[in-house]
Amino acid sequence: MKRRKSIQPFAYDLEEADLKRERAKARELRGSQWWKRQAAKGVCYYCGCSTPSKELTMDHIVPVSRGGKSTKGNVVPCCKACNTAKKQLLPIEWEEYLKTARTKASNQK
Ligand SMILES: [Zn+2]
Known about the structure:
Blueprint: H1 16-30, H2 33-40, E1 57-60, E2 75-78, H3 80-88, H4 91-107
Antiparallel strand pairs: 1-2
Bound molecules: zinc ion (ZN).
Residues 44, 46-47, 49, 78-79, 81-82 line the site of zinc ion.
């Protein structure tokens, strides 16, 4: 008999209903004046590059799938490059990515 080990270190016991609720809240936030003001700044929260507000996406600092909430403190505007990178990278790689991206952005100024 083979024993399968879980390889999901962040898999909390999240109920499907909780995930749905947080995602619905995120949609609501995205339609709010508060979010429009965040996006209107035109700056990516992570790398600090200037990005047209239309191209900024909403990102959860702690992903909903890992227990993050759709609250103003956990939701930030983020450019596409960062959004894609954050999904693909491990937290440690993400740190490295941020350092490089921020240096690049400040050199452009
Ligand atoms: Zn960025």
